[in-house]
Amino acid sequence: MKYIYLDHSATTPVDPEVAELMMKYYVEYYGNPSSVHYFGRQVKKALEEARSQVADFIGANVSEITFTSGGTEADNLAIQGAARAQAKKGKHLITTAIEHHAVLDTFKYLAKNGYELTVLPVDEDGLVSVEDVAKAIRPDTILISVMHANNEVGSIQPIAEIGKITREKGILFHVDAVQSLGKIPVNVQDLNVDLLTISSHKIYGPKGVGALYIRKGVKISPLVFGGSQERKMRSGTENAPGIIGFGKACELASQRMAEESKKLTKLRDMLIDGILTKIEHVKLNGPRGDKRLPNNVNVSIKYVEGESLLLSLDMLGIAASSGSACTSGSLDPSHVLLAMGLSHEVAHGSLRFSLGRQNTEEDINYVLQELPKIVDRLRAMSPLYAKANCQNS
Predict the structure, then answer these.
(1) Which residues are catalytic?
(2) Sign of CA dihedral 183, 351, 342, 11
(3) Segment 15-50, tens digit of pLDDT
(4) Looking at 206-277, which runs of residues are DSSP E strands?
(5) Do residues 54 and 246 lie in contact, with contact meaning Cβ atoms separated by under 8 Å?
(6) Three-class DSSP category at 284
(7) Which CATH architecture has domain 16-252?
(8) Prediction pTM value
(9) What residue ranges do the domains of the chain occupy?
């Protein structure tokens, strides 16, 4: 059977160069980076080189990078840490309705514990309005968080414009850039951000490693105590092999991003156009063109269930998703699609294809060959489709 992986927004395979380097720090150079002896110093040197690689990739200083266990921890550290450190200045927080649950759930937790939360709407393309952000700001606003690119529909937010406003107002600005890193330019200076979350396993690095950019001079409170690692911002023995792998993945991504983005954009548009042409009653979710991530395709196929589509695709060796991998066990429709104005019924028929560096035109053609057959078969069993046909006849 032919197997095609189109779920790179959930995770990516580890690049062979990354895996080879990491193995050395599991087997040969296994010292604790906090130890002063030779074994520890060797690992510490490599860890700090990785910090430099990560910092260079996003236009930061090495002292502004704090390693974490992943994007979720980095989001929590940024949001909870900033809210606690800034609590004397105010307790008003702002975010959007389409954030990853690592952001939304953290804000909801704070809202239950003495903070006030404003959740901004988005338009039908999943884009937040800069004007809405500006209007939501109050004298007691201390933190705004807007994701760089949405993990489900690929919409790229006007981060630099929002950052300009927050900088003028003296309000901390956090951006979750987990999905955008390695696909489009992410430069903390250009984006005017104070805090930025990134993750390794979305850019062909290992799972379980992420980082938080903390702009020099920004004060946040740590969540984890018990040691002096990461400049006392994140205590605990570092995952040295993972961090070193993350650094290498950043180095490789910086070299390959321009060429890969061009290739993926071509495949993305080929898949979008093919689905919209070959299958009736389909809605593209998210914007077209340069406001969409190069590798993201999200469609709602009416009158069928997304789960049935996924299972049918999987039987043919095609791996896709119905939205965020972190909520794949939920029966509820995507909060992102609902925020964009889709009905529960249409949102339940959503599919996300996220492309990666190993995908080819042959892969896309195979999907376009098989997906219409799957839809026809499922619609033949759908009472909703039969009812719609009767109403239209």
Answers:
(1) 326
(2) negative
(3) 999 999 999 999 999 999 999 999 999 999 999 999
(4) 210-214
(5) yes
(6) strand
(7) 3-Layer(aba) Sandwich (3.40)
(8) 0.95
(9) 4-10+257-392, 16-252
